Amino acid sequence: MEQLLETFYAQAPWLQSLIGLVVLVAAAVIVNYVLKQVVLKVGAPYLDRQTKTPDKAAAWLVTAAPLLIVSRGIAFVPNLPPDVYDLVRNVAQALIVVSIAMAIVKALTYANELYERLPRSKNRPIKGFVQVVKIAVLFGAAIILVAVLIDESPLLLLSGLGAVTAVLLLVFKDTILSLVASVQLTTQDMLRVGDWITMPSMGADGDVVDISLHTVKVQNFDKTITTIPTHRLVSDAYQNWRGMAESGGRRIKRSVPIDQNSIRFLSSDEVSALERFVLLRPYIDSKRTELDEWNKEQALLSESPVNARRMTNIGMLRAYATAYMANHPKVKEAGFTLMARQLDPTPQGLPLELYCFTDTTQWPIYEAIQSDIFDHILAILPEFDLRLFQEPSGLDWQRALGGDRNSLSDEKPKG
């Protein structure tokens, strides 16, 4: 019986090849199982538990071991046709290249994750550079992969790339532009994750949440995401509010339109009456002394009041607004500009602009402080006999025609 089997085995080369292939595949499967199910699980506790990236990198790397067994062991399988041998070996070697390349890519991802845990990563992100290295690794792997499959030297393929350089430049145009832009953004500290930027041309107004090689993601205040090509942040204009956040103060710059018909000089009695405002007393004393000295030197007051310098209600309001902002508990004064100024008169009134900085950059608190200041200024206008300018409305016409001043709608006709 044994002699019969030996005779059959000797006369059936395909059986020898089949047995050899089965043994080779079994060896590759056993090695793959031992490495992934035993070695990796034993070493798992020693890997970084904050991310799964090291596990993935190790899994790709150990995949090369069974593929290496196949590529080397196929030579020991008897009676295989040369074409089959070359095909199996080349495919196995190509898959080894893929597994090693993917392991390197995952390792680069893990390196970037480790770097992002450092405080300085917010100022100097390296994600764009890591992506460039990944592209280089994958490009090199693709060259080696093709060379292995066609059983030629990689140098032969590289020597032929000179003829398609223009095509490659066209294909990778955005990548090249983004790479240059990433270098500029990083080295010149133009943009960081967490910066609030405004870019009207791209519809972006919010915080930067991600900076990569090709794109920068901005989370707008309505929680939508705007994706901006990285190179556009170098070629186009945008506003970065980081300086405002770092200063600790946010600017208030808003004007109140004053009806120019209500602006006038103040009499001595009216000036004295305004001394009841504690914030105005230093201004009134200083201004009164200044005007008295000037008028006395010019000796014009005795001729006619029109020749003298006098205080005005708009000037008094401007002084009051400045003092009010300076004494506001939420307004920063030291090292920050604070003033109330007049802008050019317009058909919509005389703008009185208030300019100061709050002691916080938080949006809701900032708006509350700004509203509080202007609530007070708008309500205090009648004390200076000034009116706020407002375009005529239906109520204004009703009052002008003698209607009810307290009614907001016309009375229906009777009968």
Which labels suit this protein?
about 10% strand, 16 helices, alpha+beta, five-stranded antiparallel β-sheet, about 55% helix, disordered C terminus, rod-shaped, four-stranded antiparallel β-sheet, about 425 residues
Describe it.
The protein is an alpha+beta fold and 415 residues long. Helices cover 53% and strands 12% of the residues. The chain has helices spanning 2-11, 13-43, 53-62, 64-73, 82-116, 127-149, 154-159, 165-171, 173-187, 232-235, 242-247, 268-273, 281-298, 313-326, 363-380, 394-400; strands at 196-199, 204-211, 215-220, 225-229, 239-240, 251-258, 331-332, 339-342, 350-358. The strands form 2 sheets. A 5-stranded antiparallel beta sheet has the order 4-3-2-1-5, with no helix packed on it. Strands 6, 7, 8 and 9 form a 4-stranded antiparallel beta sheet that branches. The model is unreliable at 407-415 (pLDDT under 50).
